[in-house]
Amino acid sequence: MPHADPAPYRALVHAPETRHLDVIDQRTLPHEIVHLRLADAEAAARAIREMAIRGAPLIGAVGAYGLALALDRDASDAALVSAHAMLDATRPTAVNLRWALDRVRDRVAPLAPPARADRAWAEADAIVAEDMAINHAIGEHGLAVLRDIARQRSGPVRVMTHCNAGALATCGWGTATAPIFLAHAAGLPLHVWVSETRPRLQGASLTAWELGERGVPHTLVVDGAAGLLMARGEVDVVFVGADRVARNGDVCNKIGTYDKALAARDNGVPFYAAVPSPTIDWRMNDGGAIPIEARDADEVLVIAGRADDGRRVRVAIAPPATPAVNYAFDVTPARLVTGILTERGIARASGDALAAMFPDRAR
Ligand code: MRU
Prior knowledge:
Blueprint: E1 12-13, E2 21-24, E3 35-38, H1 41-49, H2 56-73, H3 77-88, H4 95-108, H5 113-152, E4 157-162, H6 178-185, E5 190-195, H7 202-213, E6 218-221, H8 226-231, E7 237-240, E8 244-246, E9 251-254, H9 257-266, E10 271-274, E11 280-281, H10 298-301, E12 302-306, E13 312-316, E14 329-332, E15 339-342, E16 345-347, H11 351-357
Parallel strand pairs: 4-5, 4-7, 5-6, 7-10, 8-11, 10-15
Antiparallel strand pairs: 1-2, 2-3, 8-9, 9-14, 12-13, 15-16
Helix pairs in contact: 1-2, 2-3, 2-4, 2-5, 3-4, 4-5, 5-6
Residues 54-57, 94, 163, 165, 169-170, 174-175, 202, 241-243, 253-254, 328 line the site of 5-S-methyl-1-O-phosphono-5-thio-D-ribulose (MRU).
């Protein structure tokens, strides 16, 4: 595969000729690497719903395979419609899921039922290969940004990221991490500030793990440290991922992204969203109507982790019955975004610039 991610781990593997999918169960990282075999559409849906797998592009790819798994069992029109709906309902915010499901459905629907499942598997494989190539291209455009910064200062380029927009969130390379991984491989000195990402801690448990696996220097900070670090001049650039980008360049991403964009603007730090084209929702004019997933309040009230004796434990951190709300995403207005890093280049965060970069999609 051109531009294959050389990392020793893969969020998702579909071995040729097999009719199942193996994924890393991201809920046990960084303490344990557990693989899950997804052998039917319900298992794929469960993995997405329960966040065994997560990250917008990966959700899309697993959804595509989920449809292929469903068609293996029943390739009728009715089964196609109901499997599409079942998988589409698993998580609401990342538009890659609907994009991938629609893509597979549109390819297989015109075929006679006996030909549908094979075509769906092939389409899901194509989505994986394309995701890897897209992220590599995003990485090259982001690398140019990092090289520019490196030319202007001595010492490592200090990047801040949020949540996990890494290889674990995609089929390889990650989006926000692709420039970091390419820069590190090219010998450009870097240091990454990893924002822990309450409440599920994808920064602490996943991004810190990925950077450690690849030997990229990094430091974990609490989410609230971003403003201080930027005000002290200790951040050169912010790279985040996205779950959905509206036509006008508003960026929906993990809760806490907006706060980083505000702090970045106030301190003159460039703020880039790394956005594969399937994450752009051309049907949405601005970010105001993007559905924001509200997850179980328990995630805010209880922290899960590993105790000193190795046991996995859950620890309550608030008085019992404290009311809590758990919005999983926020929307950063386009005006706070320095640029959208896509596979075709860096676009200004505006409707005109995005449409000019993707005239074939924006119609
Ligand atoms: O709730 P999650 O873990 O699926 O949220 C993930 C994020 O917000 C990522 O930043 C986003 O999906 C981009 S992944 C390339």
